[in-house]
Specification:
Helix content is about 25%, strand content about 35%. It is built from five helices and twelve strands. The longest helix is centred in the first third of the chain and has 20 residues.
């Protein structure tokens, strides 16, 4: 599913399987989640199995994916990428650093956010723009889109694009998202994220794509190498 949002030069892999194949983790990766509950270990292994499939698409040998601050994946030298996992879906995207500055992907269940979260993640302009009902959802054509969850996913993709390059924290209220639907259908489209923060060499605006399918809300941003502030 994630490949529908990414250009061909970004290698990607995903899975709907809950568990990863046996032996999916390198010993140093396994140590990172040794004290975690089974669910956490399974999703950690499954998404890294996806990452190594993406490495193979780029012609790279398999390598461990360790974690940095805020759980940021530490990719093999010369590559940039992003991973996401939610209940029932895991995905990874990887590109050569010579082609792409950063990639951010996120997947969420297409369900309303828990009570109280909507106000915490949105800014006034988003609350005015989005066609939300009392449960954070809206219907366009015959498809229900939970816009609050899609907004959360888009902001996660923004953070995953921004943070590896800046190492600066980005709060939900520091990114404003505007969604656009595709002419051919109401369940996919693009979005623009406008940031309140600045950082050397970084743009203030990011363009991404979104998709609702198979019970998931999926978003992605690719920041090309040529992009400048």
């Amino acid at each position: 599913m994630i490949e529908r949002l990414l250009p061909a030069y970004v290698a990607c892999a995903d899975t709907y399987e809950t568990d990863a194949p046996a032996g999916s983790l390198y010993p140093e990766e396994a140590r990172l989640v040794a004290a975690s509950v089974d669910r956490r270990r399974h999703e950690f292994a499954a998404v890294r199995a996806c990452a190594r499939r993406a490495m193979a698409v780029l012609g790279l040998p398999p390598a461990p994916v360790m974690t940095g601050h805020r759980g940021m994946p530490l990719w093999p030298e010369g590559t940039v990428g992003s991973m996401t996992h939610c209940e029932g879906y895991r995905a990874a995207a990887l590109a050569r650093a010579s082609d792409v500055r950063a990639v951010g992907i996120d997947a969420e269940p297409n369900e309303p956010l828990p009570p109280g979260v909507w106000d915490a993640i949105s800014v006034p302009a988003e609350r005015e723009r989005l066609p939300l009902g009392t449960d954070g959802s809206a219907t366009r054509a015959t498809h229900a889109i939970h816009w609050d969850r899609l907004l959360f996913s888009a902001k996660e993709s923004v953070f995953k694009t921004w943070f590896p390059l800046t190492r600066i924290e980005l709060d939900f209220d520091e990114a404003e998202i505007e969604f656009r639907t595709s002419p051919g259908g109401a369940t996919e489209g693009t979005f623009v994220a406008s940031l309140a923060l600045t950082a050397p060499g970084m743009p203030r605006s990011y363009e991404g794509r979104w998709l609702i399918d198979d019970g998931f809300a999926v978003t992605a941003i690719v920041l090309p190498e040529a992009t400048s502030a």
